[in-house]
């Protein structure tokens, strides 16, 4: 699987289940728990945060 395909898959996962995408990329770190809280408060903040984590922390 190429890096581009993996990146697209992670972006799609960010949109569907943001905490799972963050967990796969960063593990059970503080950023994961922040994403869980944002996702509970609203789907859009969770998605935005997950996209930021995935695209910023390659």
Tell me what you see in this structure.
- There is one protein chain.
- With 58 residues, the protein is an all-alpha fold.
- The protein has one domain (3-56).
- Helices cover 84% and strands 0% of the residues.
- It has helices at residues 3-16, 18-26, 30-41, 43-56.
- α2 packs parallel to α4.
- The longest helix is centred in the first third of the chain and has 14 residues, at 3-16.
- The two termini are 16 Å apart.
- 24% of the residues are buried.
- The mean pLDDT is 92.
- InterPro entries: PMP3.
- Keywords: Membrane, Transmembrane, Transmembrane helix.
- The chain crosses the membrane at residues 7-24, 30-55.
- This is Transmembrane protein.
Which short descriptors sum up this protein?
about 60 residues, mainly alpha
Note the topology.
Elements: H1 3-16, H2 18-26, H3 30-41, H4 43-56
Helix pairs in contact: 1-2, 1-4, 2-3, 2-4, 3-4
Main sheet characteristics: none
Backbone structural class = mainly alpha
Our Rg estimate from Cα atoms comes to 10 Å
Overall form: globular
Strand residue content: under 5%
Mean model confidence by pLDDT: 92
Helix content range: over 70%
Run of helices and strands: HHHH
- Please tell me the total number of domains: 1
Count of strand segments: 0
**Head-to-tail CA distance between termini:** 16 Å
**What count of helical segments does DSSP give?**
4
Q: Low-confidence spans: pLDDT under 50, at least 5 residues?
A: none
Short description:
This protein is mainly α.
């Amino acid at each position: 699987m190429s890096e581009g395909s993996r990146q697209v898959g992670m972006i799609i996962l960010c949109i569907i289940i943001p905490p799972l995408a963050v967990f796969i990329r960063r593990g059970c770190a503080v950023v994961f728990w922040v994403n869980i809280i944002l996702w509970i408060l609203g789907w859009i903040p969770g998605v935005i945060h997950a996209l930021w984590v995935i695209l910023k922390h390659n």
